[in-house]
Specification:
With about 120 residues, this protein is an all-beta fold. About 0% of the residues lie in helices and about 60% in strands. The chain has no helices and 11 strands. The N and C termini lie far apart (about 40 Å).
Amino acid sequence: QVQLVESGGGLVLAGGSLRLSCAASGSIFSINDMAWYRQPPGKQRELVATMTNRGSTDYADSVKGRFTISRDNAKDTVYLQMNSLKPEDTAVYYCNADILHSSFVRLRYWGQGTQVTVSS
């Protein structure tokens, strides 16, 4: 089993910054893609950013130029640097990881979610 533990959420003013962290622990052979999702109040979960194990990234249009996803493979950790935050960024943020446990087991895991609230 794998646990994804998120941290870094909180309450910030519009224009501020936060950095989210998500550390994976447990029985991990390797991690392929890692991603951040968010679920605004009353809305569906949406993909925010992804990063492959080769460093390729992709971002939702709404966060391009403001958010940066990164990862530290040695620590099995993915980060989301969020700058120029807007009230519309308010959501519960979830990390997601595609984890290879062995040659036979590959599963996706979700973090518990961390609340990000941006006030105007």
